[in-house]
Amino acid sequence: MDLTRSLPEHGAPVSGSRTRFGRAALTLLIAVLLAIFLLFVTLPVASLFLRISPEAFLRSLAEPVVLDALSLSLATATVSTAIVVLFGTPLALVNARRDYPGRALVDTLTDLPIVLPPAVAGIALLMAFGRRGVVGQYLDQFGISIAFTTVAVILAQVFVASPFYIRQARASFEAVDRLYEDAARTLGASPATVAFRVTIPLAWGGLVSGAILSFARALGEFGATIMFAGNFQGRTQTMPLAIYTTMQGDLDAAISLAIILVAISFAVIASVKIMTRRSL
């Protein structure tokens, strides 16, 4: 009996040491995995900054191809984001507050551009709005041509970037407590007044975050743009297209454009995090 009672006392230190060893091994494994992942992500980005000198970077910024691509990208991304916000906000609000037949289908079609390959999106837009497209053939009769123009760049950006705003906007509207909306209605506010004076202000942080994400997605669009709008400097050549073109002859210009996009992407992530914290 005395021997049996003494067994746990002798086994306890062994079990405790095994537990400490297991925790240490798990901690080491997690640290190694995190280090590998961070190295995999940061090394390519850091290589851009190490590959070019500050002088070469500033010199490349003065080249026409860089200036044209930068100005065109910022302008088209701004316009496309404004279009997405203008048309996407009512859609997100309706889907968040109304239950109607076919809402699940609308949600599915809204998310489709996220998983659709960019090349498929580009050729689909071309088949719809090209000169011989389903809609483009009728526009061509009035002398209206969309494909391979700046308008085509904007349409491609709207197509691929809209889900990023609409999804975020809907989630933000769903997070708004309906108690405030009901209180406004009992005071005689119309549906439009409730939306503009109550719902949208309360969801403002999420809406801004969605708009920033949509802007970043539009700014980085490549596949749909080159398929539907082409790659013409000063007219349809955005920064991603300019990177693809200039890296074949002017690597410094390509790296400079890439660094600008990295800086914008970092600013987008930081802005979204700040807006998300403020909305909590």
From TrEMBL:
GO MF assignments: ABC-type sulfate transporter activity; molybdate ion transmembrane transporter activity
GO CC entries: plasma membrane
Recorded topology in the membrane: Multi-pass membrane protein
Keyword terms of this UniProt record: Membrane, Molybdenum, Sulfate transport, Transmembrane, Transmembrane helix, Transport
Subcellular localization(s) per the UniProt record: Cell membrane; Membrane
All residue ranges annotated as the ABC transmembrane type-1 domain in the record: 70-270
Gene3D superfamilies per UniProt: MetI-like (1.10.3720.10)
InterPro entries listed in its UniProt record: MetI-like, MetI-like_sf, ModB_ABC, NifC_ABC_porter, Sulph_transpt2
Origin superkingdom: Archaea
Chief subcellular location: membrane
Cross-referenced SUPFAM superfamilies: MetI-like
CDD domains recorded: TM_PBP2
Pfam families: BPD_transp_1
Chain ranges passing through the membrane: 25-50, 70-96, 108-130, 142-166, 194-216, 253-272
Similarity section: Belongs to the binding-protein-dependent transport system permease family.
Protein name according to UniProt: Molybdate ABC transporter permease
Lineage: Archaea, Methanobacteriati, Methanobacteriota, Stenosarchaea group, Methanomicrobia
